[in-house]
Amino acid sequence: TFEDFKNDKQALEYQQRIVDILLQVMVDNPDFTPSQVGGLFTFLARQLAKPDNTLFVNRKLFDQVLEFLCCPDDDSRHTERQQVLLELLQVGGVVQFNEERLLALAEKAKFYQICEFLYEKKHLYDRIIDCYLRDSLRK
Fold it and tell me: Is-contact 27 61, C-beta < 8 A?
């Protein structure tokens, strides 16, 4: 339904309200499993990564999304979580993050494509080679 009403101001306000309510209800609520909250965060990250994004998420919740996506203890949907984060970065979402913290989280989570993106931005090309060698998806 988020795709149906791109230029309708009232629909955009409803979308923001829906996101706010979902976050308020699900985050820090023991009735929802980490997988369910993770699904919400993955959905939210995909919405935020869109070039025509109009949604707003406060800094604290944005950090929670980042923490979830980079959780090294969760092997489920590793590739999907990395891809969502990469999409966020490619559309300029990196301005929302402390890059050093993001790099540390990405290294811990073995998100080699994220590390590569950040190393390239910093012109640390020698470290990119390590990303290629360590990334089992690209061997």
Answer: yes
Q: What is the pLDDT confidence band of residue 1, given thresholds at 50, 70 and 90?
A: low
Check: CB of residue 19 under 8 Å from CB of residue 54: no
Give Cα separations from 119 to 80, 127, 138 (angstroms).
21, 7, 17
C-beta of residue 105 within 8 angstroms of C-beta of residue 130: no
Sign for the pseudo-dihedral over CA of 94, 97, 50, 81: positive
Mean pLDDT, rounded, for 6-15: 78
Specify the DSSP class assigned to residue 97. Answer: S
E-strand ranges in 4-110 read none
Whole-angstrom Cα distance, residue 54 to residue 8? Answer: 12
Q: 62-77 pLDDT, tens per residue?
A: 777 778 778 887 777 7
Do 111 and 84 meet the contact criterion of CB atoms below 8 Å apart? no
